[in-house]
Amino acid sequence: MSQPQPSVNALTPAQVEEAVDSAAEKKVATPFLRLLVSAMFAGAFIGFGALFFTVVTSDSSLSFAAAKLLGGLAFCLGLVLVLCCGSELFTGNSLMVSGAMEHRIGWGAMLGNWAVVWIGNLLGALLAVALVSAAHILDLNAGAAGTTAIAVAAAKISPSWLTLFFRGILCNIFVCLAVRIGFAARSVADKVLGILLPISAFVACGFEHCVANMFFLPMGLVAKLTGYALPSGADASVVSVTGILYNISAATLGNIVGGAIFVGLAYWFVQGHHADRGIFGKGGAN
């Protein structure tokens, strides 16, 4: 008897929803230490993308549009590594809310996963900062990479808290849509191509990703404290521990709202099995 040939077509939105919910079950069943280390990988991976962005955009000869486009494409490295190599990213795990709504995982288990993964992402990002600092990567381009790190951090801390919060919402809408594309993909090439536009777009638009900022902001502070030239036209005084907490608190809450509500709950409403149970009407999702 011949074996059925595997499909090369992307998963349908309804199949993606099932894959997201199934993944949520596996995530809450992961032992603590494995979950923490996997989250550390993701924090470091996103940090590597942020470093790539910093080095590329340190070229002052780039026009505004070119710097935004090339920086955004460079940053995509982070999510490519997360989705293709396997690790736990806090922002993407916002999608677990649909599994909770389907009663496939508990709300407490979901929140516990988020807490462990957020901490693991932070530890991984800080480890990446330490490695980059020890390797003197910010010396590239005659130290312009270090100056850019300070400028990026200052630009992320300077806006109002509410502005950062809404930028966080927009950011994780893009990120979680990219993650859903990753679930739909059948190959590594599909995942990479699917990630490029939404991730480069959120970076180019200056949205706030809490895990990326766990690298960008400490890296900027380290660059400032270790004597890299301060950027002209930017208030480097805001680059401090207080400034880092200010930004990350807004970005984290915004990311939760953007990912869990505007993507996770919205797609659960459209594609979830609640319609089969007659909660919102007769008939299943297409």
TrEMBL record:
Keywords: Membrane, Transmembrane, Transmembrane helix. InterPro entries: Aquaporin-like, For/NO2_transpt, For/NO2_transpt_CS. The chain crosses the membrane at residues 35-57, 69-91, 111-133, 164-183, 195-223, 243-270. Pfam families: Form_Nir_trans. It comes from the Bacteria. PANTHER family: FORMATE TRANSPORTER-RELATED, FORMATE_NITRATE FAMILY TRANSPORTER (EUROFUNG). This is Formate/nitrite transporter family protein.
